[in-house]
Design a protein that fits this description.
Layout lengths: L4 H15 L2 H24 L2 H4 L4 E2 H7 L6 H15 L3 E4 L6 E4 L7 H14 L4 H12 L1 H7 L3 H6 L7 H10 L1 H17 L3 E5 L6 H12 L6 E8 L2 H14 L5 E5 L16 E7 L8 H11 E12 L11 H4 L3 H5 L15 H10 L4 E5 L2 H4 L8 E7 L1
Parallel strand pairs: 4-5, 4-7, 5-6, 7-8
Antiparallel strand pairs: 1-3, 2-3, 8-10, 9-10
Helix pairs in contact: 1-11, 2-6, 2-7, 4-5, 7-10, 11-12
The structure holds S-adenosylmethionine.
S-adenosylmethionine binds next to helix 10 and helix 12.
């Protein structure tokens, strides 16, 4: 089955009426503002107003601070965001190779940051997971770009048990992140008659948790003939194994290491062996997105799907609030740029997904919900499900 007009319309209506609650929309707005304020704080701490008395590129500025090479990407995105959203900086030139000049004085953001934390807490305690994650990036900003460049990579790949709770909250507890898995589950239910699912980058389990909760509630667990949960972190795989085999003992499970940057055949995934490849906020970590998609295409049976619940760049050059922290990871900021379908690192825009999925040989690409249709009601939307059909 492919994405029908009916599935698209029903899914869009469900997002609008049920998933994107007033709290979700307000929290998204607040988190965006919070990021702007924390970036302002970085701007102040680094004395950027002084450094940008004459216009500079992000590379020049990063070099002045003694930051590691790819840190210019972090600096570039932060300054562009500040320019567009606060007017602190004047941005001149194309978005990815602009020069920046100090434009207006900033005020101390401390009081407003505190107000936003309170406002988010009033929407629900879990929403503060988003600001905690941004705060963590803010607190480790300079350290990660200068003194300990792999610090954030260790956190994101589960190699630092001290921060496991922070990462779990950031990916699963934060309702703004948690909704990605809810979206993926609903689309899978609409697409899959019955078959084997391979999940890639399953991590702390957001995708599987929503999918099985949804299917169990609908009495449809038997749709899943086998579920193969994978991640590059065996710590994550084993923790999920513990949780899910207990919660769903009747499901036929597979648990394995899988690196999406390596050929599928080398990793015990045979051609035409699965019906659906699922990933929640993981497909964008591929270094070469088209090669990864070609691997998915080969592993799928005819008519099979990739279903990627993703953060998307609704505006091609936008920096997501959580990238204040993620852009401190070498891996995140290095997933290659400069392809027509990937002008910026990591997250793709909907039109980029269409192009990449087409290049990988899929017969069809759909991005749900109808983002344009929802834009007037939810201008800050950021979540979509990308479906490629073989
Ligand atoms: C943003 S997390 C999403 C995790 C999970 N799907 C969720 O939503 O809770 C990205 C996941 O991709 C995994 N990952 C990172 N690099 C990977 C790679 N090269 N191959 C496979 N998985 C990778 C990470 O370990 C992490 O679990």
């Amino acid at each position: 089955m492919s994405v029908t007009d009916r599935l698209r319309a029903e899914f869009t209506a469900w997002c609008r009426d049920t998933l994107f609650t007033p709290e979700v929309r307000e929290a998204t707005r607040l988190v965006n503002r919070y990021c702007d304020l924390q970036l302002t704080d970085v701007y102040r701490e680094l004395g950027m107003a002084e450094h940008l008395q004459t216009p500079k590129t992000a590379q020049q500025l990063a070099a002045e601070y003694g930051f590691v090479d790819t840190a210019s990407i972090t600096v570039r995105d932060a300054l562009r965001r500040l320019g567009e959203r606060t007017g602190l900086v004047h941005v001149e030139g194309p978005p990815l190779s602009a020069t920046y000049a100090h434009a207006k004085a900033s005020t101390d953001p401390t009081a407003e940051l505190a107000q936003i934390r309170v406002a988010l807490g009033a929407l629900g305690e879990d929403y503060t997971a988003a600001t905690d994650f941004i705060d963590f990036g803010r607190a480790n900003f300079i350290r990660s770009l200068k003194d300990e460049p792999d610090f954030m990579d260790k956190l994101l790949s589960g190699r630092m048990s001290d921060f496991a709770e922070l990462w779990h909250r950031a990916t699963n507890v934060d309702p703004l992140q948690d909704l990605h898995g809810a979206m993926g589950a609903r689309v899978i239910d609409g697409l899959l008659e019955r078959g084997t699912i391979l999940e890639i980058g399953g991590g702390t389990g957001n995708g599987a948790r929503h999918l099985f909760r949804h299917l169990a509630a609908e009495g449809k667990l038997d749709k899943v003939e086998k579920f193969i949960f994978t991640d590059i972190s065996m710590r994550f795989v084993l923790a999920s194994k513990h949780e899910f085999t207990k919660a769903y003992p009747t499901v036929s499970w597979g648990w394995q290491f899988f690196d999406l940057n390596k050929p599928f055949g080398e990793q015990k995934v045979e051609p035409a062996s699965v019906d659906l490849i699922y990933a929640v906020n993981a497909a964008h970590v591929a270094m070469n997105i088209v090669d990864f998609l070609k691997g998915c295409h080969e592993a799928l049976r005819p008519g099979g799907h990739v279903v990627f619940a993703e953060r998307v760049r609704v505006n091609q050059y936008e920096m997501a609030p959580r990238e204040l922290t993620l852009n401190l990871s070498i891996y995140h900021r290095s997933a290659p740029e400069h392809a027509s379908y990937r002008p910026m690192h990591c997250y793709l825009a909907p039109k980029n997904w269409h192009e990449a999925i087409g290049l990988a040989g899929f017969s069809r690409c759909d991005v749900l919900p109808d983002l344009e249709g929802l834009a007037p009601e939810f201008p800050d939307q950021y979540a979509a499900v990308v479906v490629g059909t073989k």
